Amino acid sequence: MVLFADRIHRIGTENAFKIGPHIVAAEGESSRLVVRLNIGEPDFNIPEWVKDEVKEQIDANNTHYTDPKGVLSLREVVSQQMNETRGLQSTPEEVVVFPGLKPAIGFAQEVYCNPGDEVIYPSPGYPIYESFTRYLELEPRPLILRESNAFSFCAKELEDIITDKTRLIYINFPSNPTGGVTTQEQLREIADLIVNKCHPDVRVFSDEMYEHIVFDGASHLSIASMPGMRERTIVASGLSKTYAWTGGRIGYAVFPTVEEADVFKNMNINYFSCTSPYNQEGARVALTHPNAAGRIAEMVSTFKKRRDYLVKRLNTIDGITCTNPSGTFYLFPNIEGACKKLGVFDAFDALDEAIKEKTSPATMVQMFLLYRHQVAVLDRRSFGVIDSEGQHYLRLSYAANDDDLKEGADRIEQACQDTKSFQTFVNTHLHLFQ
Ligand code: PLP
């Protein structure tokens, strides 16, 4: 008899949530506050008009179970906005609301895939795509996003991994963790490939969570707008990032058919019945308020200034090179040079094979930065483990104030020069990698 079912050993996680205890431990060891560049949420608050609506709804006792598909007033707004921005012709019946976008990601694998079916997802990418594949006994097929391609991908790369068993393809632009966006040309070629090569029942899950956080005149493009794609694409987004409302737990998706939307509604019924009605009404107001666009533009302009600062700063550090992404609030610097300088590759090679499987040179740098230099970032493996070997990157979130960004960059610079203490750190902190 064993306590846990086998599948529990196969599910992954999201390290952005798991790093918390390490931050506490690092602060305890050093008596210095950690600069947090690990956080995947905007450091802004929701506008007054959203707060007011939520409070009014609670005062009016709109606190009961509600339509598991989502309240109609919100689904109407989502459908209308999706139609306006992506040229869809959706109806509110094709829209489902979830408590955050995350549940829809796992549900998609449960709904569309049988054991043995193949799931394609970007890597580095949002870790929940990969996490569910093994849990559900599906075959993970990471689509490696390369720095040389501005962390986008071209149709040929996708074509190489599509097979008769492909059932579901995740696409995420602007991308977490790289900030990469795709070009219209690339997206058109990808769409043409899918239409020509995949069975009509193969689904594309287009995770457009960061749709509004784009810079340098780039505008968000959805694959659902491409010819032949509306009927194959689940277009997903939510309030967590654009409206700085991660705690509101409001995500939504538009499905190709009402039949599919109803299956996802039934998943909601099975897992959580419904999403909180007062927050759904708050989300409706957030999406439709006349000042919403202005508020988003302010936030995006702040993010752009920070991006410009941090990209420039990182590129002055010996051992780090950083591309200038056009979206999100993340940077994905290449730290190969720093790994060489600090002796990380040698330290990694000297580890036991069993430990090596659980870590990577970038993970070792992540821990060195945290415990020795008190700056929290995430490693490449936090965004997909399979086939991640040889890719030496970190994710930095610039959802932090200017002082923290400067202090964080200073500490990273000092860490990259701290060649003397890396090996001692590994010797004293081996438990972190086991
Ligand atoms: N998709 C991407 C690409 C994300 O980065 C996130 C959150 O970090 C999510 C989905 C999940 O968002 P939510 O907090 O609404 O569940």
List keywords for this structure.
single chain, 434 residues, alpha/beta, seven-stranded mixed sheet, three-stranded antiparallel sheet, binds pyridoxal-5'-phosphate
What is this structure's SSE topology?
Blueprint: H1 15-18, H2 20-30, E1 35-36, H3 48-59, H4 72-86, E2 95-98, H5 102-112, E3 118-123, H6 127-135, E4 139-144, H7 155-159, E5 166-171, H8 184-197, E6 203-207, E7 233-238, E8 251-254, H9 258-271, H10 277-288, H11 292-315, E9 330-331, H12 336-342, H13 344-349, H14 353-356, H15 361-373, E10 375-376, E11 378-379, E12 394-397, H16 402-417, H17 422-428
Parallel strand pairs: 1-10, 3-4, 3-5, 5-6, 6-7
Antiparallel strand pairs: 2-8, 7-8, 9-12, 11-12
Helix pairs in contact: 3-10, 4-10, 5-6, 11-16, 15-16
This protein binds pyridoxal-5'-phosphate.
Please give a structural write-up:
Keywords: Aminotransferase, Pyridoxal phosphate, Transferase. Its cofactor is pyridoxal 5'-phosphate. The protein has helices spanning 15-18, 20-30, 48-59, 72-86, 102-112, 127-135, 155-159, 184-197, 258-271, 277-288, 292-315, 336-342, 344-349, 353-356, 361-373, 402-417, 422-428, and strands spanning 35-36, 95-98, 118-123, 139-144, 166-171, 203-207, 233-238, 251-254, 330-331, 375-376, 378-379, 394-397. It is globular. The two termini are 26 Å apart. It contains 17 helices and twelve strands. The mean pLDDT is 97. It has a seven-stranded mixed sheet, sandwiched between helices. Strands 9-12-11 form a three-stranded antiparallel sheet, with helices on one face. A two-stranded parallel ribbon has the order 1-10. It has 434 residues and is of the alpha/beta class. The structure holds pyridoxal-5'-phosphate.
